[in-house]
Amino acid sequence: MARSTLLAALYCLIFLNCLEPLISWPANDKDAPAMSHPDFDQYLGEYLKPGDTLALLLDYDGTLAELTSHPNLTQMSDEMRESLRNIADSGKAFVAVISGRDVDGVREKIGLENIIYSGNHGLEVLYPNGTRHNQGIPSDVANNFDKMIDHLNREVVHHGSWVENKRVSITFHFREAEQQYVPEMAARAKEIIESYGYRANPAHASVEGKPPIQWNKGLAAEYILGTSFDANWRQRKVLFAGDDTTDEDVMKMIKGTGRSFRVTKDKDLVTNADYKIPSVDAVYHLLKWIESRVA
Predict the structure, then answer these.
(1) Which long-range contacts (CB under 8 A, 24 or more apart) does 172-175 make?
(2) Is the pTM of this model over 0.85?
(3) Options 3.40.50.1970, 3.30.930.10, 3.30.70.1020, 3.40.50.150; which CATH number does 139-210 get?
């Protein structure tokens, strides 16, 4: 009897180990299992019913497209683009992409007409009808922009680092730089950026230089939703996915009303998102799930 009980328990363990783990887990659960294939019904099934209308907000780099050594190399897959197009064209979904890239750059990368693009972490907004909205930048700071870039190029651009000029903000990239030089060059880049009146913020293997105005992706999302709908936009279903620290402001803004996903493989990462998902491929499965709901 004891032997049969032991065998039954062993078979049960083997069976459980063969089950596919879930793709997402409660955002700050450090003991969550490894992830593979999605089951978004478990996380969004009660929130987004078939036929519901929603607002879908997304980051681009690291969310809709894999991160690469150079932003020009980043490509969104045809499958991801097609799913995003189907959602935007469904008549039941409002889609906006809020990126750290300049607004024309992210529009060129995605290439869809029926969505709102926001660039420079929300400082620029481009609507499908061609209307633009830009947050005001103090003229004395704006006049320092070219000087700041020139100074960065002269002093800290070496050993594989470079400056991305996004017209309103800059990103000092050191992803491909020799590691021994990174701490010193990143610290000096921060000093230079701040000396010209810009805010320096850490990002993925980079330092962002932004105008000193109280604006971020969360405020941009709130502005886009408020101007696209009405004062009651929070009663709509809102979903967001992003992979960077700059995306946390959106996650915080919709906390408790919308649902958000942080793209990361780091189980220990503390986030404002409701759930974590591990990859761009997981975002694709999320879009396919949404597509099935709004089709």
Answers:
(1) 172/206, 172/207, 172/208, 172/209, 173/70, 173/205, 173/206, 174/205, 174/206, 174/207, 175/69, 175/204, 175/205, 175/206
(2) no
(3) 3.30.70.1020
